[in-house]
Amino acid sequence: MNAGIGYGLLAYLAWGLLPLFWKTFNSVSSGEILGHRVVWSFVFVALLLLIGGRWKALKSAFSERKNVLPMVGCSLLISLNWLIFIWAVNHDRVVETSLGYYINPLISVLLGVCFLGERLRAVQWMAMALATAGVAVLTLSYGSVPWVSLVLALSFGVYGLVKKKMQLDPMVSLGGETIVVLPVAAVYLLVVGMTGQSTTSSLSAGYQLLLALSGVATAMPLLWFAQAAQRLSLTTVGFLQYLAPTISLILGVALYDEPFTTVHLIGFCLIWSALLLFTLSSLKGRLAMRATGTGVQKG
């Protein structure tokens, strides 16, 4: 259990601190950062697969026709998620990214209801209503729909739903997803470089190396999360997942001086209340199912 919590903390701390990493490249276009992230993620994951003797697992994943379309879908969804996150961080919208990952668990549950036939109790529907009210309050505060938050939550929620259908090893899955968009990323980087539009050419050697480490920054938290998920209950993982957006929120407000007004606080409090209500309800349901010896309840 202690090792599992350690891996979980490492994963969510890394994800929560990612804005610090991407802010380092705020003079670089979001498209180029994404291109480098895809390329270097593939390089790092490919090395891990080769060293671990699992390259054949990646080849076999593509050889099964049932995996190809979901893999392409996952690749497009995670690329969109990465692009919006990087763009938001470097356009002073870190608080909005934290909101996206606070509401993501609720979006995932809603997708489960819609597409997997999962059922919610009355208390959990109440949590959904509170979260919706929170988003509505924040919409009034921003003067527009918080699209960054919603796109991040929806893209990652649907990504998780599709990955659940594939049931592949996390590293094999990430390797496949990066292979799909690797040609596009490589051609894009080549074109902007050859046409003199590259925003990375002025970076020092140190920053170039740091950008190459984006592959490590992408893959290592996934490895840690996979180790945590094997050792911890879903309930514990559920509590730990709120660590990442909390860290990002603190960074956005305390370090980057992004606005956080009373209206923001009201909106976030509604969403936090929804998360607390939903998590406690899910925990109560699981404990009740264990007590009756009928297994673990979903949701």
Morphology call: globular
Number of structurally distinct domains: 1
End-to-end gap: 22 Å
Q: How much helix is in the residues?
A: over 70%
Low-confidence stretches: 295-299
Overall pLDDT: 89
* Alpha-carbon Rg, integer: 20 Å
Major sheet characteristics: none
The computed structural class is mainly alpha
Secondary-structure element order, N to C: HHHHHHHHHHHHH
Count of DSSP-assigned helices = 13
The total beta strand count reads 0
- Beta percentage is under 5%
Organism: Paenibacillus tianmuensis
InterPro entries: EamA_dom, EmrE-like, RarD
Subcellular location: Cell membrane
Keywords: Cell membrane, Membrane, Transmembrane, Transmembrane helix, Transport
Please provide a brief summary of the model.
The chain is an all-alpha fold.
Spell out the key features of this protein.
mainly alpha; 0% strand; transmembrane; Chloramphenicol-sensitive protein RarD; transport; 299 residues; disordered C terminus; EamA_dom; cell membrane
3D structure, described in words:
With 299 residues, this protein is mainly alpha-helical. The protein has one domain (2-291). It is built from 13 helices and no strands. The protein has helices at 2-23, 30-51, 55-63, 65-89, 94-115, 122-142, 147-166, 170-194, 205-212, 214-231, 234-240, 243-255, 262-291. Helix 1 packs parallel to helix 12 and helix 2 crosses helix 10 (214-231). The longest helix has 30 residues, at 262-291. Mean pLDDT is 89; it is low at 295-299. Residues 3-139, 150-279 form the EamA domain.
